[in-house]
User: Fold this.
Amino acid sequence: MPDTTNLEPPEKSSARARILRTAHDLFYRDGVRATGVDALIATAGVTKVTFYRHFPSKDDLILAYLNYRHELWMTWFVDALARHRRAQSRAKRERSPLAPAALALAEWIRDPAFRGCAFINVVAEFGDHFPRAVEIAGAHKRDVTAAITPLLDSSRGAQALARAAAIAIDGAIVRAQADDESAGIALAGLNDLLDALTASARTPRHRAEAEPTETAPRNQHRAG
Amino acid sequence: MPDTTNLEPPEKSSARARILRTAHDLFYRDGVRATGVDALIATAGVTKVTFYRHFPSKDDLILAYLNYRHELWMTWFVDALARHRRAQSRAKRERSPLAPAALALAEWIRDPAFRGCAFINVVAEFGDHFPRAVEIAGAHKRDVTAAITPLLDSSRGAQALARAAAIAIDGAIVRAQADDESAGIALAGLNDLLDALTASARTPRHRAEAEPTETAPRNQHRAG
DNA sequence: AAATGCATAGACAGACCTGTCTACATGGCA
DNA sequence: TGCCATGTAGACAGGTCTGTCTATGCATTT
Assistant:
């Protein structure tokens, strides 16, 4: 997500803002576990006392990082959506209503600092061992879905459509992350998916409404 | 991926097989970085000398783990695909040609040991700091795409379709991982995406063939 | 019988981890 | 003037990390 300008008001504890900002950059770039507290305080230019005064434990900082990141990213995303929506309405030729989402994603993925979704990454790092972080990640995903819902006709099944689109977006994100030069493939695939989604919504052949057990097998498959 | 029976021939160094197997289980369950060598040797029931004789460094073990996991998972996946394909051909009513992939995914995601895609997780953990691991992850993704390609008509654009489907699959995987009870949402969304994909392939309205720059902006967006 | 290969047990080094501690400086406010 | 929040600098504790070390046992092969 480009251009992460500092949103914190500097009058309220500049040290805290610097720590949070540094944590954001290092956590996202190098991973949370790989970033030690010593590296954080050195980069932020504070001392340990200051650091631990603001964030009593690293876990607290991680949670603050996730909330900060969420706010930052969502702000950028809804703005990018609106931006591309305006550009699309100016252009004559019709496009998929989800095209703004694809364009926003393309912007982000092509950014040199792109390193995937911070929330997916944290869940991948910690999983069940950090449930509060997983919670925030879930809330983030829900908010992303909610942000793209207004792109769609509110009339029929916009909810299910938005959910499917959000999944396609996540897939493109991890695909672009896993293979450097495959960002193009990821974006092309995302376009195909979103186009197919809206096309099928126009011609409602089989409206799959949410319930997955229709196709999923019930037999609990025990694993090793 | 259920039922990970031991594939290693036991005559050749049972210790090595035990280490690899243990690494597989712990790395996948708890994360790679979170799993220390001491925990590995304790669980595998070997000593440090034995451990380091077979895997000179933890990085070597990580790579071996990824290769092992790849073989294991792909074996399961192609089998599950064939299984669901047979079941589908027995059933009378027509379904999407990608339905076997969705059914296989459902099997996996509903497995209690499911903790997302091991390769996505490793990339999320290490990113640029472990390029060889990222390479293996890319190869894995390519192989998954290749495995679902035969489900599609080889005639027109099966390649692009399979790539899009693979992205949808990845999206469903991370979605199911991020939010526990949202496995159902992920699978429903995956079904919607795959159905839409094959439906749009039958009525080729706009065939987006690979090149993404058609929709993606060229302006290099510098980031902070 | 000797040698070689592979296993065991566990101490150890050196680095890094999170988090606490003492001691001191500064600046705003009652 | 005194108080207190906030900042600085850096030593330190206690744990964990990867990786190396010595010393020993037990096969199979030569």
